[in-house]
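User: Teach me something about this protein's shape.
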Amino acid sequence: MKKIFLLFIMFYSMTAFSQQQAPVKNEAAQLKEYFFVMLKRGPNRSQDSVTTQKLQEGHMANIQKMANDGHLAIAGPFGDDGDWRGIFIFKTKTLEEAKNLVEQDPMIKAGRLIYEIHPWWTMKGAKLD
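Assistant: First, the predicted structure itself:
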């Protein structure tokens, strides 16, 4: 009798587990991968004001180009003067593609900004497209 009871418990547990897993797989099928970039204060911030202005203009032009080319879902600065300076969220196919785009930014090239990049998921159809 104990064996039958244990088999019943095992069968019930496996059935319950598989039913709980089904929605997760369904949700995963509805997720889309993006690449989240945290732009942070870099080690080289000693440029004069004219150079800094030119770097900023190049940074903004690069953001516009990435958006126009369809690579950038969203971008923006933080409103305080902390070490976190802004974010990019890329809709590229690979991490390497996103990394190559970030490294073209004049502020990154000059060392005024550094970055961290992470794969990031959200629901398909989110307002990032």
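Now, about its shape. Residues 31-123 form a domain with the Alpha-Beta Plaits fold (CATH 3.30.70.1060). The mean pLDDT is 83. If you'd like, I can walk through any region in more detail.
User: That's plenty for now, thanks!
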